[in-house]
Design a protein that fits this description.
Rossmann fold; 7-stranded parallel β-sheet; 6-stranded parallel β-sheet; 14 helices
Length: 425
């Protein structure tokens, strides 16, 4: 199937052609016909599958530019994702004259209010700022005909579900509702039952498979040695760009400071920073001014950087699905990439969840020459499957000696599908 087969408006086909998009991704191929028929939709899809275009194209197909109040609303969990979605909306709605307004917190609301007063066709924003505008009468939802909840499970994790509920209550009952989420926990299912009318469901299973070009492994280590092991990995790998994930925003600052003291050029990204400083940090990392970015999961989705060489999970993610999101930041745009997860004695249960999600064991390795301290009892190590080449060696159960083999890296990229990179995901 090609985009021409959907019967899209000429202006949309022109924008797609200019972007070099001809063939829809699977989530687009399944979702767009359903949405063009006017049905509500639940899309179970990971980032990078092209879901942004899956909902933008149907919205633009019926949208008429020039009204006062927005006709469509896209709610995103993070500023970064909202910025990315708004950029795609401007890119593919430009020939239709669609006016896109972006609204998010952490920065002055003055310019955003002025843009709303000037008129908006599509409004993209984060839950807190959108609800503030609704409650203060700066935003009217009376003309909204389509509402998109993008990455709904992330909004739940970040504590925004009540704000989302309040926004939906204030929007017209006749709207078309689209919900996209990597997972559908009970709270999200209940939200869908309250506010969606006989929704169709499209499920993509790609998220449970790590891309072939990503070589990933687990590095068991005592929790007190994590920093030392990380520093040694960075020294041996010497990657041009490294993205390091921590569990909390406080740990982000602590780890960034520790790496700076060891001579690394580091920027950090978390909700502790103002929006202006977050954007400056991302831009400096994108340009390569700083080779290391330490971040919370706020950067795991909607981060439009395709040349990250190494991803390090300094902390094992709380949710298994986030493992796939995190390590998916490397190995993009047909490049190969590596991902390392530091596993302490307290992380085995979360690791088991990850391996259950992937349907296979993940290779466990140790770094040759690194002076490991014994892990406390309860942090049992299990041998994993052989994986790609890593700076370490495959680890056996316990510390027995014997032949050690390196794996071989390999992979293949896929091109030619719209939204196959973070630009449309």
């Amino acid at each position: 199937m090609r985009f021409h087969d959907f019967g899209l408006r000429p202006e949309l086909l022109q924008a797609l052609e200019e972007a070099g998009y001809d063939t829809p991704t699977p989530v687009q191929e399944q979702s767009i016909p359903i949405l063009l028929e006017g049905h509500d939709l639940i899309g179970v899809a990971q980032t990078g599958t092209g879901k942004t275009l899956a909902f933008l194209l149907p919205i633009f197909q019926t949208q008429r530019a020039g009204g006062t109040d927005p006709q469509a609303l896209v709610v995103c969990p993070t500023r970064e994702l909202a910025i990315q979605v708004a950029g795609e909306a401007e890119r593919f709605g430009k020939h239709l004259g669609v006016r896109t307004v972006l609204a998010y917190g952490g920065t002055s609301s003055g310019d955003q209010k002025r843009s709303l007063v000037s008129g908006a066709d599509l409004l993209v924003g984060t839950p807190g700022r959108l609800l503030d505008f609704v409650n203060s009468a700066w935003l009217s939802l009376r003309s909204v005909r389509a509402v998109v909840l993008d990455e709904a499970d992330r909004m739940l994790d970040m504590g925004f579900i009540n704000d989302v509920d309040a926004i939906l209550k204030r929007s017209p009952m006749s709207r078309q509702t689209m919900l996209f989420s990597a997972t559908i926990p009970d709270e999200i299912r209940e939200l869908a039952e309250r506010y969606m009318l006989h929704p169709r469901t499209v499920t993509m299973h790609r998220g449970t498979k790590v891309a072939d070009q990503v070589n990933h492994a687990l590095y068991p280590v005592r929790g007190s040695q994590k920093q030392a092991l990380l520093v040694e990995i960075l020294r041996r790998e010497n990657p041009a760009k490294t993205l390091i994930f921590t569990a909390t925003r406080e740990n982000t600052s602590v780890l960034a400071l520790a790496l700076r003291r060891r001579g690394h050029e580091v920027v950090s990204l978390s909700s502790l920073l103002s929006q202006a400083n977050r954007e400056r940090a991302l831009e400096a990392f994108r340009r390569g001014d700083f080779p290391v970015l330490v971040a919370t999961d706020v950067a795991a989705r909607g981060l439009d950087i395709t040349d990250i060489d190494l991803v390090v999970n300094f902390d094992v993610p709380m949710h298994a699905e986030d493992y796939v999101h995190r390590i998916g930041r490397t190995g993009r745009a047909e490049r190969s990439g590596k991902a390392v997860t530091l596993v302490s004695e307290h992380d085995e249960r979360r690791v088991a969840d990850i391996e259950r999600l992937l349907g296979q064991a993940v290779q466990r390795v140790e770094l040759p020459g690194f002076s490991y301290e014994p892990r406390p009892a309860g942090g049992a190590r299990r041998p994993g499957r052989r994986g790609g080449s890593h700076p370490g060696r495959p680890r056996r159960s316990g510390r027995s000696s014997g032949p050690r083999r390196r794996g071989t890296s390999g992979g293949r990229g896929r091109a030619g599908r719209a939204g196959g990179t973070s630009r449309s995901g």
